[in-house]
Amino acid sequence: MVKENQQCISCGAGHYYRVLQDITLDTQHGRKVTIPAVEVFKCRACGDEVIPAASHNYIDRRIADEDEQLSPADVRKSFEALGDSLTEISQAIGIGSKTPGRWLSGSQHPTKALGLYLRVLAEYPEAYKWLKEQGWKAPEENILHLTFGPDGKAMINGHAFDQLEQPTAEGQPPWAKIGNFARQFCGTPYRPVRSAIS
Q: What is the CA 107 to chain-centroid distance, rounded?
């Protein structure tokens, strides 16, 4: 660890002095970011520069903010919202078993894409449940087919939609009736309605 007035480790002739300087770096998404007032030690003789560990941490935090990366605290909050063990979460979202621990310790950060993915799953638990249960493998009978007959009336899996006596809640669009029927007809999990003209 380099300190002020320490002998230069490169030339051995000069000594380090402390300076605050702006540093411009590229983020992992190719954007240039200027980080102000980074503490650096410079040799008075040869100009060698050493960035101390605290400055590296400061740089990492600033880049994470610029790239909207999740901090360890954000990751912890997302994992808590999912309500499963780290092993279950890593299996469900398709990452290595050690990755969640690295994110929580701050030794590694989720990419921007994975960070957005985690935010969505934490905000919409039903999406995480569908992912965990591999909802795309739901049996064929749980697929809803929305068709329109020659008279223009809607049918869901052969049931006349206009005969359903399920009023929508106040403020819901008319299409919410289909979602209500889907839940009644299939239970959960169910697959999205498919549209077709018969």
A: 17
- Domains and their CATH numbers in the chain: 16-66 (no CATH), 72-132 (1.10.260), 136-195 (no CATH)
List per-residue pLDDT tens for the chain, 198 residues long.
888 999 999 999 999 999 999 999 887 667 788 999 999 999 999 999 999 999 998 988 888 777 777 888 899 999 999 999 999 999 999 999 999 999 999 888 888 888 889 999 999 988 998 899 887 776 655 566 667 667 767 676 666 655 444 445 565 555 555 555 555 555 544 444 444 443
Residues 6+ apart with CB under 8 A from 24: 32, 33, 34, 35
Q: Which two tokens stand for residue 5?
A: 């007035």
Q: Are 8 and 15 in contact (CB under 8 A)?
A: yes
Give the predicted TM-score (pTM) of the model. Answer: 0.47
